[in-house]
Fold each of these.
Amino acid sequence: KVSGQVEVFSWWTAGGEAEGLQAMIDIFEEKYPDVEFINATVAGGAGFEAKPVLISRLTGGDPPDSFQVHAGHELIDTWGVGDYLEPVNFIFEEEGWYDVYPEDIISILSMGDDILSVPVNIHRSNVLWYNKAVFEDNGIEAPTTFDEFFAAADALEAAGITPLALGDTGIWAAVHLFENVLLGVVGSDDYIGLMDGSVRWDSDEVKEAIQIFVDLLDHVNDDHSALGWDEAAQYVIDGTAACTVMGDWAHGYFMAKGLTPGVEYGYVPSPGTSGIFMALSDTFCLPADAPT
């Protein structure tokens, strides 16, 4: 019989995120009814507010029992290199996950032979979400290219509608938008090359992507720096803005607000990225000095 308590640290507080976390908590509490689950959340998209708190706790010797971290460089460069984590290879072995997870996913969870965290999702981050009524009322199709977007933006602004909702009170949302633009211009192979150093950052294509990003910022809401990503998504729901570029976690937000995909809102790959899946994974890891 397992008893005691377990503290799990995350930043899942927005609509869709909170429901997803609660669903996992419900499963845990059903399986371990004598264990108190301490839900240690800190609000702020992508952990913008949570990460400084987490750094303070781990470096101060007060780690939670587990915490949320993005797979890839955030996981490896921040926590893997500092010996803050226990490898979780044993969980993969016990659960048979080596036969389930693709090697590419395991590679972004690992440092050497050590797997450092367990994914709980695989998000697609290159998605444009739009208000179907706004688009239909203005005779606009969902843009698949940047030229199409800018043409739509002119028509929307003429109708008094903000073309693109952005909420970058946490600067990550602006970075996320730029990542989408960069992928849409250079393509998947060169995008990977930029990340691994085989493609130069001073190429004409990168310069083009930067200019497109700057031009996009001319078509966002004036209060973008005061909003979170979910508040920007709410602008799309309200029809104040026509669309937003955000990962597929926005789908959970829209559904948590009672909307139905294909009815009130639609979605397409962000401009230029059709056929490409930009992956992002939320994972949970095991601190080396976890109390439980």
Amino acid sequence: MAKILSLRLNYKGKFLDYAKEGKEIKKSFTIGSNKFLQWQILAPSFPDKHTFVHQKGGEYVLQMLPGSQLSVEKDGNAVDSNYLKQNNLLSGNQLVLKKDLKGTVVLAPDWDVQFEYREPWVAVLTAEEKQIVAQYARRAKPDATTRFNRMILWLILILAIVFVILFDAVLKPDYVLEEETVAQRLENIKSEAQRVEADLTPITSSFVQETPPEDTGETAETGQTAQQGSPGGTGSGAYSSSALDAAFAGGFDAGATGIAPSLKIVTVQEGFSARRPGGRGGGGGA
């Protein structure tokens, strides 16, 4: 069987992961500190992405970073960089991976990759193992409960399909699509719409002043004239009795909204006398 390129990633001497030709390694294989790569090298100085292996001329070429340490063996014997350069295997930081080469590249402190060509591992079963696989590598026969559940599921599925077909053929209403443009639809909306305008006509209140009756008499007790209207007025701005009653009672009268109600103060004079039995009355007060 043909050998394939195999890479082995180690961290502090412990194995982490494999990368094989034809699976992870195709035309190229990229590593780096990026978390979305298969091989993430957690070293501060390591770049985000680095093409570690790429195909060139039918052979794979290993691209090393500056400062990487390389150790190579050929047919089980260690070779140095001069030998690799003389045989055109090492040019700068690029190493041509021949099938008889294997070695180790130190990427960063605690991180190294081993490379070599090896035959892919294939599991070969013995006769006993093949018999065991043939015995148990098939599905078990369903029991009565499993068969009943399957039958119910198939029945529900068939009924659902029949219902969909009947609904689409008989029960589904026919939708009539109106072929009209946007402009026609706008015209239809405008024709059906009703414009509402607010009535902005000013409305004024009418106030009626009542002329109070002339009062020429004097009060019997005071001898002074009680005048209606505002103090010092002639009664032209006086309110009607109903308006004043409504104002003092806490009500509202449309005829009394022009001027605030005026209060009238009336001064009266009263007399009194003191009399002793058998004597004359006298005295007075205001």
